[in-house]
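# step 3/5: fold
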Amino acid sequence: MKNTKLHIRKLAKAGFSLVEMLVVIAVIGVIAAIAIPNIGNVNDSAKEATARRNAQSLASVASAAIAAGYTPTATDADGIYTEFASGVKPTTGAFKDKQFKVPNLPTASADKARVTGYLTWDSSNKVLLYNSDAVAQ
């Protein structure tokens, strides 16, 4: 008989009370309230990092192409972006007819504006400048 009472008490203790369950749900709610707004910030940070990387690549390829003998027809960063997205070829020099291109540049206008926000075309020196401190749109 003694064993039967002990066994019943153990069964009654197995499980969670309503208060314990409510505490767990409240903690999960607090963690979700903190985490969910940060998920949007992570996506924005990733887009900014991609735009910076694309701007750096574009400035580097443009400098190489200009040094190889390519003469840009564009007069601003947007035009240079368009030229190098499709690829350009110098008409003279050792790299004549070699293609200079930045692959996989985004075509959406918002993404393009984000990239060109970090670029400035210096027409007097014919160079595309990357400005890491710029605030892209």
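# step 4/5: annotate
Strands lie at 119-122, 127-130.
# step 5/5: archive (pending)
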